[in-house]
Amino acid sequence: MLNWLKSLLGGGDSAAGANTVQHEEDYNGYHLAISPIRVGGQYRVAGTISRVDDPDRVYRLIRADLCPSMDIAVEQSLMKARQTVDQLGDRMFDQSP
Fold it and tell me: What are the structural domains, with CATH classification, of the chain?
């Protein structure tokens, strides 16, 4: 349990590569930076979403979903980021810690 929490917070070996952006794109006025987190032999869906016109507003996207490969994790993270933008828009920033 503690290792899982460390990986979410960016600590420990399980978070290796957590800050490595694997894919970036602009989507409906938001910048999506996809960076899955390595957890053991799998990858957690993760990335950041920021406003194109206000890059200081950042939402950290981390989901419980684990994927067997980096490619699948990037694809799933991108899908979740787009879905978050579509469903929440700027309200996502009110939910970010």
Answer: 2-95 (3.30.160.350)
